[in-house]
Design goal:
The protein is 30% helix and 32% strand. By secondary structure, the protein is an alpha+beta fold. The protein has two domains: 152 residues, Chitobiase, domain 2 (2-Layer Sandwich); 165 residues, Protein Transport Mog1p, Chain A. Strands 7, 8, 9, 10, 11, 12, 13 and 14 form an eight-stranded antiparallel sheet that branches. α3 packs parallel to α5 and α5 packs across α8. The radius of gyration is 22 Å and the shape is elongated.
Length: 333
């Protein structure tokens, strides 16, 4: 998607235009902000609390998919234009959504840039003559906006993990599967076989895990939701035991059904599956996210699955962390 530049009257957009034309290499400041947080910039609190703000909150603040308890997709922080202009702390945020609604604009337009005031950073701005035009335009572009801020979140997390890489663990993954993941410290290999690896991070309050397995590709049934779930269940029954004798991890269909979709995964075709897991024979459970793709060179199905166990605690951020690790995927050759 291509975006044209336009000249704007407000100081905010003049500032945006001038700074965003600089080369990314000149943006030395590291971006800031919490996980899954977006700074939303509008002229006034009245606009933010009005129908335009309502449409933004309803979409970007919708429930994050397939969690056991409701959590918003993004946490939205409103910043009046004047405050944003004067604050050196807000502009370096990793995700910024700027909305300028004013009569001087004849039609609605959108622009997207990266690394404007910091790096990594994604900034989207929309101009519109009135709230109704903005809402209609936002409805048309909302999927692109969501995807852009999802990418922003992954890029920031991967960049953070890169500074704390566990190179020995990455090497084990590479030797076993011929691909790399940006693995931060704190994880360890719980089990490893020729076509399987269970990687864990355990604390007193939560657990995060990655389950990686491969098998021969025979046909496209490998991308079928039922096949993905049944194969995952066979793997976890064999290799992921629960805390009591005879218990094991399995996919849960009790409250929220697993869902899948086909995606572009770093230029590769893949199926993303989200759902809940439980331990049969015990009371443990939580969310999981699963990516299934094919190594065409070796004719192998690759599955990388991340799960979270965090009783009585928010789980969105921990799922996003695992998702970002998985999205750092690169073939070794």
């Amino acid at each position: 998607m291509k975006f044209k530049w336009f000249v704007f009257g407000s100081a905010l957009f003049i500032l945006f235009f001038l700074t965003s034309c600089s080369n990314d290499k000149t943006t030395g400041q590291r971006s800031s902000g919490k996980t899954a947080e977006i700074i939303v910039v509008m002229k006034s609190d009245v606009q933010w609390k009005g129908v335009a703000g309502d449409s933004i909150r309803a979409f970007l603040g919708q429930e994050y998919p397939q969690l056991p308890q409701p959590e918003p997709y993004f946490s939205l922080v409103f910043a009046p234009e004047a405050s944003f202009m004067s604050s050196k702390m807000l502009r370096p945020h990793h995700s910024i959504f700027i909305i300028d609604i004013a009569k001087k604009y004849k039609t609605a337009k959108m622009q997207a840039r990266k690394n404007v005031w910091a790096k990594p950073q994604k900034v989207i701005k929309i101009t519109a003559p009135d709230a109704e035009t903005f809402i209609s335009f936002f409805e048309e572009k909302k999927d692109f906006i969501l995807k852009t801020f999802e990418e922003s979140e992954r890029e920031r997390l991967i960049s953070t993990f890169d500074a704390f890489r566990d190179y020995p663990l990455q090497e084990q993954i590479k030797k076993n599967f011929n691909f790399s993941l940006t693995m931060p410290g704190g994880f360890y290999v719980a089990k490893k076989y020729a076509n399987f690896m269970w990687i864990r991070k355990e604390t007193e309050k939560f657990s995060q895990g990655l389950i990686i397995y491969t098998y021969d590709f025979t046909d496209t049934v490998a991308f079928n939701l039922k096949r993905i779930i049944s194969y995952r269940d066979s793997i976890t029954k064999a290799y992921i035991p629960g805390p009591t004798e005879g218990s094991f991890m399995s996919v849960s269909n009790d409250y929220i059904k697993p869902v899948s979709k086909r995606i572009d995964f770093n230029g590769l075709f893949a199926v993303e599956t989200r759902g809940l897991w439980k331990v049969k024979g015990d009371f443990m459970g939580g969310p999981f996210i699963n990516y299934t793709l094919v190594d065409e060179k070796r004719n192998k199905v690759i599955t990388i699955d991340g799960y979270v166990y965090a009783p009585n605690a928010p789980k969105r951020n921990m799922v996003m962390q695992l998702e970002s690790i998985i999205w750092s995927f690169k073939f070794a050759d």
